[in-house]
Design brief:
The chain is mainly beta and about 775 residues long. It has two domains: about 1-105, Immunoglobulins (Immunoglobulin-like, Sandwich); about 120-680, Beta Barrel (Maltoporin, Chain A), CATH 2.40.170.20. The strands form ten sheets. It has a 22-stranded antiparallel beta barrel. The longest helix is centred in the first third of the chain and has 12 residues, at about 1-15. The protein is globular.
Length: about 775
Amino acid sequence: MKLLLSAFCVIFLSTFAFCQNYTIRGVVTDQASGDPMLFEKVKLLNASDSSLFAGINTDDNGFFSFPKVPKGSYIVKIENQSYEVLTDLILVSEANGIKNVQYRLDKRQDVKKIGEVIVSAEGKIKKSQVLISKISLDKAGIERIPSVGAENDIIGAFSVTPGVVTTGDQGGQLYVRGGTPIQNKILLDGMTIYSPFHSIGFFSVFETELIKSTDIYTGGFDAEYGGRISSIMDITYRDGNRQKFGGKVSVSPFMAKAVLEGPIGKKKGASPRAGSYILSAKHSLLDYTSKNLYRNVNEGEGMPFTFTDIYGKMTFNGDGGTKFSAFGFHNRDSVNYGAADLDWQASGGGINFILVPGSSPVFIKGHLTGSHYKTSFQEVGTEERFSSIGGFDLGFDFTYFLRKEGQLNYGINLGGFSTEYSTFNQLKRKIENNSFSTEVGAYVSYRMVTPRWVFQPSVRVQAYPSSSSISFEPRAGLKFNATEKFRLKMSGGRFSQNLTSASSDRDVVNLFNGLLAAPDNIQQSFVNQYGRETNPRNGLQFAWHAIAGMEIDLTKQLSLNIEGFYKLFDQLSDINRNKLYDDTPENSKIPDEEKKNFLIESGDSYGLDFLLKYSKSRLFIWAVYSLQKSTRWDGFQEYAPVFDRRHNINLVGTYLFDKKKSTELSIRWNFGSGLPFTPTSGYFQLDNFGNGVTTDYTTSNSSEVAVDLAAFNTSRLPTYHRLDLTVKKAITFKNSTVLEIIASITNLYNRRNIFYVNRVTNDVINQFPILPSIGISFKF
């Protein structure tokens, strides 16, 4: 630990050594709103002949930097078809120093910018970044995906990402290339969100209207991200409007929501005010509307979902891009299926800041966040399950821009969390875990760009003091620009995490996923699927990723991305399905596999993902096919995990009608082969043998019934498929307010997809039948 912190201090102090060359740096924002211009191309031209000296794209905060600029006269030029061209003459008369600039772009009056389905920045930077297993979306891209209940949500974007498997309309679980939900790290402005999706699987806790950018990494991600072994979903919210008060309200049979934003501080000329605020709230209406509108659901009892999401943020901006934000949130979710009840709630908040030191060309970002999440699950005929987690995270990230799109990033973070967990296995043996854990991580990432190659090596050192373990995690990404239209890429590395999840094998579909730190109540030795014996000291989870792929620009509008992946999960921790005895001194001679609460497992996942994209002014097509296989080894047998969906297809199409392109039609069809589950072979009565060995089992009776299971996950559910359709009509008024009418039909041909089976009562719950909906929104 001390060595890790000392090494980082050396790196931090060396930051100021970078200022031995002249640097021109700055931030690009929108004049009207004050929002940063993401991934905007900034050119530095020689003033003498207008030749290009260097070019760079702004980052996700609007920053750019030109290092090592020799003496001379230069012109900064920014061109965007929706904004007035900006030029600025800069004279460099010193060998060393920093020139800080700030550019605000004015929108052109004769151009109406139409948001692209996929962030246009991806096209700008695809030759200078590896971009493997990464999908980037903005608000406009998310809104092109068919909505459910007349409400757009980011979960729609995540569920059509290559390599992602969803459990369907209910439950809110997503599995990414063989990883479980707890192995996906969901970030909101640097804060980890432990339960991002509501029980009704159409909606997340995130507000689409606030989203500035979303980066989805399905594997092979950079060392900047730690603490997860499968995937990353990094969401950034925008700031409030610094110029004027505004907002958006909407209502549909599914929910009502409102967003309000405005400036804080005094007006200074045409410049935006120094601060802003933004508030959002949404609440489900299904408990009021579904009994009348959706009588075809749940035998006329309606849709038993209730949720509430509240979010607020204040932001204060300084000169040169320096910024400070404070935010907070609260989420609640409840569902009562009759045969099973699930409830959870989460609260948290934190601060984020960006510093632009005047004496150093390094940009500094930091965050301090804290949150708490708890959930409970009660199923008829079983004991209640409970889980909670609460903790904090402190992190600093440093960025130094290099020549020719190169970049050096490094950072450190410190976190701690406490967990409580309690459940029961099929023999009603209690399994519980209560602990407090800490983590310290540091990383360095370097991106080198040449005309043909992009090379991005990185390394992360992740320390787990509570488990007395340090994980050294080298990672690397590589891209070869073979031609203007054909690129090869690959990435891989080592990953680790402290959190684990435990779910019951009684669930045909898992509703409850408890969260806990890496357990230490595990077996002393483990023999993996290859016959290699290890002696695990703790229940930390580890994985290796290897990914290779290609990008092909078939035409200017049509592109194809193909990726093959392999994930080796060489150490996983899971609930002990084989536990028969309590781990007590009198059972010291019983094998660990029959008395420990948790077991070490291993496994792998591999497959191919195909993504075909077509985007023109009116038509957008997104076609995804994923072929994958996942296996797990528990020391006794190899089995297919509950998310082992071999074939998955997502087809999305959007078309804009009429002269003003104000009418939009979107369709989505999803097909998935059957998920595995453990079939029930019979039932038996439990007897506590109160009279010991003299108990007469032929006459003793018990009201408690236990389930006898067949071989684990040896059966498959039926195939899942569904067609959704959405039509939107936007009406823009002279004062720039917009009224939007949205009509949608979910499960258009009324497919009966199975969702959940209670093993004790045999009650079956299907996914949602056909669900028409209409909603309106008003943006002002």
